[in-house]
């Protein structure tokens, strides 16, 4: 297959070998009602239960023979280097919009005695104003009273590890997030791929210094030839074209990008909230996107990209590009409009395949899970009372680093 030092992802369903996770931490307890929208949450989650559920998820992965890596532990290894640690903190404060010298000095002093692991956890959980008691006023901004309760915002969306970067072949897209609230998340990935010995020198098909957003929940690797990317609320068509150009000008095997133009709403924030692959010829889909769905194929032309509108049903498009005799679209909620709406809201279509025909799902989406089982898919379930409040499912919470080819 590949050695353990590489990104290696050429499909959505091959046996999962290695995955990156982040278990929710104290950042969840820094979500308050007044700032739900700012932090991109709809509800307040209960941390103890959320961690219990996430541990169930990780245990399921380990039981399937998957290597589970945690972002905080990898980052702590990187930050053992003092120069890297200092540079990270300066960039983190800059991107966290810490605007005054007095507060910056206080934050440096606050972090100085911490271990690398404690520092990275605190960067994620956020710094409340009450935690910095010795700010030396150096500017007007240090003196003016500010009712906002944080000097550094928490990053509660970080347990959705799918979005900040995406594994694609033997490279990654290091993403630009749609919301400023989440853009700091990609800084962790930048340092991971710049400095961790296991992941250095990985090709980048997109970088976080670009201007147009793209998020990993919109990026699906359908085969070693075909990538699907959603044009969504959070991924721009311009970014998709740039990824396609870089892929086609590399030594990778990909020759087609299918761009799925999905409705631009929070309910369908990413392609993988409405469409995922569960077996060689089987896919979950939310029926509400089928009729308004436009698909464009992007291939390498004689001069630049060749882009065509695919005037056909989705099943026919998938058969054509994946060279399949038939395709089974398994509808969220088993096609029932009420069940589909309820279960799509809690990510019934957001499955994570651990091998062909075997997927991990939230237990609460029982109608969809039963529909999958009736189509021959083995469904592994775990509890989802609290994790689902963040509006993401098993695929959203995981970034595959290596899969077997199929």
TrEMBL record:
Q: What broad class of enzyme is this?
A: hydrolase
For this protein, the record's NCBIfam families field holds: arcA, PRK01388.1
Alphabetical GO CC annotations of the entry are: cytoplasm
> To which protein family does this belong?
Belongs to the arginine deiminase family.
What species is this protein from? Anaerovirgula multivorans
Name any one GO molecular function: arginine deiminase activity
Q: What is its main location?
A: cytoplasm
Q: Sorted alphabetically, which PANTHER family does this protein's record hold?
A: ARGININE DEIMINASE
Pathway field of the UniProt record reads: Amino-acid degradation; L-arginine degradation via ADI pathway; carbamoyl phosphate from L-arginine: step 1/2
Q: Mind telling me which Pfam families this protein's record contains? A: ADI (PF02274)
Q: Name one GO biological process term.
A: L-arginine deiminase pathway
Q: What is this protein called?
A: Arginine deiminase
The residues the entry assigns to the signal sequence are: none
Give the keywords, sorted: Arginine metabolism, Cytoplasm, Hydrolase
Asked whether the UniProt record includes Protease among its keywords, one would answer no
State where the protein is found: Cytoplasm
């Amino acid at each position: 297959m590949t050695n353990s030092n590489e990104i290696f992802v050429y499909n959505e369903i091959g046996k999962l070998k290695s995955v990156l996770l982040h278990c929710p931490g104290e950042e969840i307890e820094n979500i308050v009602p007044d700032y739900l929208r700012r932090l991109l949450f709809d509800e307040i989650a209960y941390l103890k239960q959320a961690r219990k559920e996430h541990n169930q998820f990780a245990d399921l992965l380990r039981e399937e023979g998957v290597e589970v890596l945690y972002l905080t532990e990898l980052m702590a290894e990187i930050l053992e280097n003092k120069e890297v640690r200092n540079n990270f903190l300066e960039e983190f404060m800059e991107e966290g919009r810490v605007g005054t010298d007095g507060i910056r000095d206080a934050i440096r002093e606050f972090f100085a005695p911490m271990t690398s692991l404690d520092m990275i956890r605190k960067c994620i959980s956020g710094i409340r104003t009450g935690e910095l008691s010795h700010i030396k006023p150096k500017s007007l901004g240090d003196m003016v009273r500010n009712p906002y309760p944080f000097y550094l915002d928490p990053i509660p969306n970080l347990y959705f590890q799918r979005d900040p970067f995406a594994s694609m072949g033997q490279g990654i897209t290091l993403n630009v997030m749609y919301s400023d609230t989440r853009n700091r998340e990609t800084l962790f990935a930048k340092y991971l791929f710049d400095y961790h010995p296991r992941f250095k020198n990985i090709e980048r098909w997109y970088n976080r210094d670009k201007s147009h957003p793209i998020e990993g929940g919109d990026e699906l690797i359908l085969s070693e030839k075909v990538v699907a990317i959603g044009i969504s609320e959070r991924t721009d068509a311009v970014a998709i074209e740039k990824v396609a150009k870089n892929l086609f000008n590399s030594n990778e095997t990909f020759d087609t990008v299918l761009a799925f133009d999905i409705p631009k709403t929070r309910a369908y924030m990413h392609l993988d909230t409405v469409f995922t692959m569960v077996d060689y010829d089987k896919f979950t889909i939310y029926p509400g996107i089928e009729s308004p769905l436009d698909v464009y194929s992007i291939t390498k032309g004689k001069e630049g990209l060749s882009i065509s509108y695919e005037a056909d049903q989705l099943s026919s498009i998938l058969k054509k590009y994946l060279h399949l005799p038939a395709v089974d679209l398994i509808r969220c909620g088993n096609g029932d409009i009420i069940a589909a709406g309820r279960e799509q809201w809690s990510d019934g279509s957001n499955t994570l395949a651990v091998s062909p025909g075997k997927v991990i799902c939230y237990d609460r989406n029982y109608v969809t899970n039963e529909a999958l089982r009736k189509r021959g898919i083995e469904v592994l379930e775990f509890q989802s009372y609290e994790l689902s409040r963040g509006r993401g499912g098993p695929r959203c919470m995981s970034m595959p680093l290596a899969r077997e080819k199929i």
